[in-house]
Amino acid sequence: MTLPTISIVCPCHNEQEVLHAFTDKIVGILSESTFTYEILFVNDGSTDDTLAVIRDLASNNSNIRLINLSRNFGKEAALTAGLDLAQGDVIIPIDADLQDPPELIHDFLLEWQKGYDVVVAKRVDRSSDTLAKKITANLFYRFHNTIADVEIPDNVGDFRLITRRVVSAIQLLPENQRFMKGIFSWVGFKTSVVEYSRQPRAAGESSFNGWRLWNFALEGITSFSTAPLRVWLYLGFFVSAISFLFGASIILKTMLFGVDIPGYASLLIIVLFFGGIQLIGLGVMGEYIGRLYMESKRRPVYIIEEDSADTKNDAGD
Ligand code: UDP
Ligand code: MG
């Protein structure tokens, strides 16, 4: 019987400073286990020396595979590429910056052996994050989970173990705007939770600033809920009902007390208020229509420029 293979999928964008430390650590941990392993580094259009570093790592360890995307496609796309190409029986997506502690892989494997198809890592301590990030993340999860069809567990990232059949399920989702946290939840399967405390980045800088996070949150919400579109119907009903009552009260007042001229300011405020409300509604529709448009192009999620597995095979021809 062949041993199960573990695939580590690591999207990398400008990670030259941490890759050596990361690789040493993860290879150490994987070689202790009784399974065979492969590490897929997906270089997502790095502008530093990440590509050269990975190439070097891959040439020194035949279990390491380089997948070089043709440009920066974003973490979700890089992760998707890794999941598509991984060959293992269990797949573990992990960040390169050592914020996801590789030690947890032992616990993942134990849970998997108990029969779970998904083992997620839950951050119990976000002290490495800024207060603003903690608050906004919390708001995002609360809002998303209130309106979306699938719940994303609080404080759970992409770091997890999934089995081959979960990956096959994920590959059935054809969308090209891929909000992986949502996609992972959407496919379901028997899930176990392992807790850990999140460390600050070992080196380098986070690629996610405020604006990118905001767009990421919008992606998550629009990918898994149409509630923001539908709320306008009810708001419209509500506003119509109020204006109807208001109109009736004005007619009544005019009949009882005669014409009353003042009211310019309140009129202006109401016009501006509803102008604003309508624009927000239109903007929300725009968010969905834009995504519908992008989705309708059916573009691939990523383009691979180089795969070291191909190069190795070619060399053997
Ligand atoms: N990443 C990527 N493409 C990007 C941005 C990030 O592949 O466009 C990778 C990055 O190299 C890291 C992981 O995604 O391995 C998480 O990114 P980061 O640490 O910047 O995010 P944070 O931990 O701050 O949320
Ligand atoms: Mg990070």
UniProtKB/TrEMBL annotation:
GO molecular function, one term: glycosyltransferase activity
Residues spanning the membrane: 231-252, 264-289
SUPFAM superfamilies hit by this protein: Nucleotide-diphospho-sugar transferases (SSF53448)
One Pfam family per UniProt: Glycos_transf_2
Entry's EC annotation: 2.4.-.-
Enzyme class of the recorded protein, top EC level: transferase
Main localization, broad class: membrane
Compartments in which it is found: Membrane
Bilayer topology term: Multi-pass membrane protein
Keyword Transferase: yes
Domain Glycosyltransferase 2-like residue range list: 7-168
UniProt xrefs under InterPro entries: Glyco_trans_2-like (IPR001173), Glycosyltransferase_2 (IPR050256), Nucleotide-diphossugar_trans (IPR029044)
Highest rank taxon of the organism: Bacteria
UniProt entry keywords in alphabetical sequence: Glycosyltransferase, Membrane, Transferase, Transmembrane, Transmembrane helix
The protein's name: Glycosyltransferase family 2 protein
Native species: Enterovibrio norvegicus
